[in-house]
From TrEMBL:
InterPro entries listed in its UniProt record: RepA_N
Positions of region (Disordered): 114-155
Domain Replication initiator A N-terminal: from-to ranges: 11-89
Natural source organism: Ligilactobacillus salivarius
Protein name: Replication initiator A N-terminal domain-containing protein
Biased composition (Basic and acidic residues): 126-151
């Protein structure tokens, strides 16, 4: 899984087996790098599955959603290059893919085969579609009783983390409702409320973004609603800053830059920010003094960068205009409130 340095910097490990195992001789270094990012995302999906959330698991196993556009922005390669690298990984049995809708693929990340695996009868080519999920279960259940105990402790720990730091102030009405409604009815209502919230924001936020909201909120409506409100609150602050200048207030470019529908950098920035927030909170929750403040500032930073990127990459701006733009949408508050 992704590692973090003492300075809070996140890095992704490269798996040496891909370089030393003769099985992967001929696999390009770029494909090995892409696999490392896929595997990082897979570990997060596996963790979500272990917590009882099946959003990133189906009958074929645990999968990830990692678009070509996200990979091109991350690695600096062309879309065609990413497609070729994915085909390399498919040919070497390191990933399997399945079409999901019109634009996205479900990517099933396969385990790296070691030399011991090569000498066994279980060759990678014999993997069934559901081996991804079964393999994850086997890896996490060498000792069944210990695994269950650890899972229960992990669930309790994560529950305490979120309950302690996020959304701790319930209204009187909310508390009264919790007393009146029994647990079964509450779970049903909560699922319906989440579905309703998803439908409301779906014209603006992508399903992938809402999926990450749901994971970060641990499937709880109040937390998901707070996250949605926080996204639009952060966006509204950037919008107010940008449109305080007549240069952008009366321009089509300025108004397009602050809309999810027209600024693709903005939509993808929210998705990336939510994913990184989830991982940082999971790994560094004890060091973050104010998680709610951290989430807000992190989202605002990503969206601010997306607005600047949209304007500077799509339009020819003078040096003075760029300076003004930076002054308008830059925020002095640090991204992380970590003690």
């Amino acid at each position: 899984m992704t590692n973090t340095t003492n300075e809070g910097l996140v890095f992704t490990p490269l798996y040496e087996e891909l370089f030393y195992n003769t099985r992967y001789k001929g696999l390009s270094a770029e494909a090995k790098l892409l696999y490392s990012f896929y595997y990082k995302r897979y570990k997060l999906s596996a963790h979500v599955y272990s917590m009882g959330n099946t959003m990133y698991a189906d009958k074929n196993g645990i999968f990830i959603v990692f678009s070509n556009e996200e990979a091109t922005e991350l690695l600096g390669y062309s879309n065609r290059k990413i497609t070729n690298l994915k085909n390399e990984l498919i040919n070497f049995g390191l990933i399997k893919t399945k079409r999901c809708g019109l634009y996205h693929l479900k990517i099933y990340v396969q385990p790296i085969q070691t030399d011991d695996d090569n000498n066994s009868d279980n060759d990678n080519s014999s993997y069934k579609d559901d081996s991804n999920l079964d393999n994850t279960k086997r890896e996490n259940s060498n000792n069944t009783k210990a695994e269950k105990d650890n899972a229960n402790k992990q669930n309790m720990r994560n529950s305490k983390i979120y309950n302690k730091y996020i959304y701790t102030r319930d209204t009187k009405e909310t508390k009264q409702e919790k007393i009146k409604i029994n647990k079964n009815s509450s779970n049903t209502f909560e699922k319906q409320a989440l579905e309703s919230l998803k439908n409301k924001v779906s014209p603006i936020l992508s399903l992938n973004a809402f999926g990450r909201i749901s994971v970060l909120a641990q499937g709880q409506y109040e937390k998901a609603k707070w996250l949605v409100d926080t996204i639009f609150k952060a966006k509204s602050q950037i919008e107010s800053r940008l449109l305080s200048s007549d240069r952008w207030l009366y321009s089509q470019e300025g108004n397009a830059a602050i809309r999810f529908e027209t600024n693709n950098f903005l939509a993808r920035g929210v998705e990336s920010a939510l994913l990184q927030i989830t991982e940082i909170i999971y790994r560094q929750h004890e060091e973050i003094e104010n998680i709610k403040g951290f989430i807000y500032v992190y989202l605002r930073k990503f969206m601010s960068s997306a607005v600047k990127k949209y304007l500077t990459q799509n339009f020819e701006l003078s040096e003075d205009t760029i300076i003004e733009l930076n002054e308008l949408v830059n925020f002095k508050k640090p991204v992380q409130s970590i003690g």
